[in-house]
Every structure is written in structure tokens, then in C-alpha cells.
Design goal:
This protein has twelve helices and ten strands. Helix 10 crosses helix 11. It folds into two domains: 145 residues, D-Maltodextrin-Binding Protein, domain 2, CATH 3.40.190; 97 residues, 3-Layer(aba) Sandwich (D-Maltodextrin-Binding Protein, domain 2). The N terminus is likely disordered. The chain is α+β, with helices and mostly antiparallel strands and 299 residues long. The protein is globular and about 60 Å long.
Length: 299
């Protein structure tokens, strides 16, 4: 074999050795990477979401916080009834908005043994009732509605039928003997109806709640509720599926520590509304500006 032929064989052999080494290194690196991903994975947390302004705000807030901590978060858009049923069956991890003592009492009573309802609220200054535009000067109480039935065409414009407030609104109709029909729709449709009515200075009555940005956009007033059927001050609680606190002890403690006051919740809702097309961006801005608040929840 001549010297030239030997040189070619040596070169080919060296190339195979180098390629094999590179492949091995690449596979080892990928193996280490995948191993690290598995080790660092904290799992997926599913949170129920309802198309209410404060709910969109809070669910996106927690999605931002938890994903920053390495969790995957799946927001599931479910109305209140299906959401509570999913929580009780274990198909949902967190239901972030339970209004008590009145609005969601029926859901609490039904599922209190099948889910973990938190002892303390994350918001403690809620209000719910029937609302009308402030220019309706002669209508100030629920008791004024029957004698003004024709103005409203005997209709109360509502939102999602399974919401606790809609169930209580039907109780109000029965309790006060109102000759009115409660018309369900969606939250967005109800808000649009209110804005259109106010724009044209027409009568409208709807079940509403605070906190809600609509009160900063149009002038509305709650009707007096002498029988307190809607209750007085409402508080908002979280609930988790049974076993969530042991599966995700840290997250459970963070949610227990979660608290917002009027100013904080209002600011969060405004940032979400400013980023309606991508609410997570609004939540991220709030997180950046309120890290000291968040740090207190995550002790």
C-alpha cells in the first residue's frame, strides 16, 4: 500500500472518530437537558376563569406569578356551575371567585364537602344589587320597580344564567313580587346594553357588582334593598380541589396569603382593561410594579 493510500485511510478514520464523539456529546447534552427539565418541572395548575372583569384580572395575575415560578398554568373558561362541578370532581385545581355570604351560597352549600373553601377572603368589600342609571331620579329602591314596569318593559337585563348573582336576582324577583322577567345573556352583552341605554338616556335595570369598571365609565346607582335579599357586604374567596394543598403545598399557601384592597384590585383591573387583546401583558405590568405586595403573599 503506498503512502498516499495510507494517508487517506487515516484521514477517513479520524473524521469518523470526531463525528462519533460529537454525536455522543450532543446526545449526552440533550439527555442532561431533558433530565434537568424533568427535574425542574413543577407541573400544570388549572384555574377556572369566568368572563368577569375582576376574574379575568385575578386569573391572569396568578398565571403570571405561577409561570414566573416555573409552573404551567391552564386557564379554563367555565361558567360558575360547571366550574364548581369541575372543582368537586378534581378536574379543576382552583376556583378563584366565590362570593359569600349570599351570592354563591348555593354553590358553597352544595360543594362544601367536595372542595376546599378558604377560610379567609382575598377581597372583603364587594357589593351586589340591581342598578339603574343615576338620571332615573324617581327610582331608588327595588320597591319602586313594579310601579315603573312599563319604563323597563318588565325586563331585568342579566348575564350568565349560572352565576350566583343571577340566582339571587331571581330570588329578589320572587321576594319582592316583581312582575319582571330576568333575561340572561353574557356579561359582555349586558355591559353593552347598559352603555347603549345610558348613551341614549333610556331606562335599564341590571344586576351588577362592585368591583366592576362599568361604574367608572357610566353613572349608575344601586337600588336600595330593604329586605337585604342581595345581602350587604360580600367577600370573595378562593376554593381548591380536595388534595391540592398536599399536591402543591407552596402554591396553596401563596393563595391563602393572597389579599387585594380596593386600590390594588382597581389598578389591576385597569391594567387588564388597557390590554384587553392580551390581558397577560396587563397582569405582567402590575406584577412588575407591585413585587413588594406579591412578596408578602409568597412568604
Amino acid at each position: 500500500m503506498n503512502v498516499k493510500r495510507v494517508g487517506q485511510l487515516i484521514l477517513v478514520t479520524l473524521i469518523f472518530v470526531v463525528l462519533a464523539a460529537c454525536g455522543s456529546t450532543s446526545e449526552d447534552a440533550n439527555s442532561d437537558k431533558n433530565s434537568g427539565e424533568a427535574k425542574d418541572s413543577k407541573g400544570t395548575i388549572t384555574i377556572g376563569q369566568i368572563n368577569w372583569p375582576e376574574n379575568i384580572a385575578v386569573t391572569n395575575l396568578w398565571k403570571t406569578i405561577l409561570e414566573d415560578e416555573g409552573y404551567e398554568v391552564d386557564l379554563k373558561l367555565l361558567e360558575m356551575g360547571p366550574q364548581m362541578a369541575a372543582l368537586a370532581s378534581g378536574d379543576l385545581d382552583v376556583a378563584p371567585e366565590i362570593w359569600l355570604p349570599v351570592q354563591d351560597k348555593s354553590y358553597f352549600e352544595k360543594y362544601k364537602d367536595e372542595a376546599n373553601f378558604f377560610e379567609n377572603p382575598w377581597y372583603d368589600n364587594g357589593r351586589v344589587g340591581l342598578a339603574v342609571p343615576t338620571y332615573m331620579k324617581d327610582i331608588n329602591s327595588i320597591e319602586d320597580l313594579n310601579k315603573n314596569k312599563d319604563k323597563f318593559d318588565g325586563e331585568i337585563i342579566g348575564f350568565e344564567s349560572g352565576a350566583g348573582t343571577m340566582l339571587v336576582a331571581q330570588d329578589v324577583i320572587d321576594e319582592y313580587g316583581l312582575d319582571y322577567k330576568l333575561s340572561p345573556s353574557s356579561t359582555a352583552a349586558m355591559i353593552t346594553s347598559i352603555k347603549n341605554a345610558v348613551k341614549d338616556k333610556e331606562p335599564i335595570v341590571a344586576p351588577l357588582w362592585k368591583p366592576h369598571y362599568i361604574f367608572s365609565e357610566v353613572d349608575l346607582k344601586f337600588l336600595e334593598d330593604p329586605k337585604k335579599t342581595f345581602g350587604e357586604i360580600e367577600q370573595i374567596y378562593m376554593a381548591t380541589r380536595n388534595g391540592f394543598d398536599s399536591d402543591h403545598e407552596k402554591v396553596s399557601n401563596w393563595l391563602i396569603n393572597f389579599k387585594l384592597n380596593d386600590e390594588q384590585l382597581g389598578d389591576l383591573m385597569n391594567k387588564i382593561k388597557e390590554n384587553e387583546e392580551n390581558p397577560i401583558e396587563g397582569a405582567q405590568k402590575w406584577v412588575e410594579e407591585n413585587q413588594d405586595v406579591i412578596d408578602k403573599w409568597m412568604k
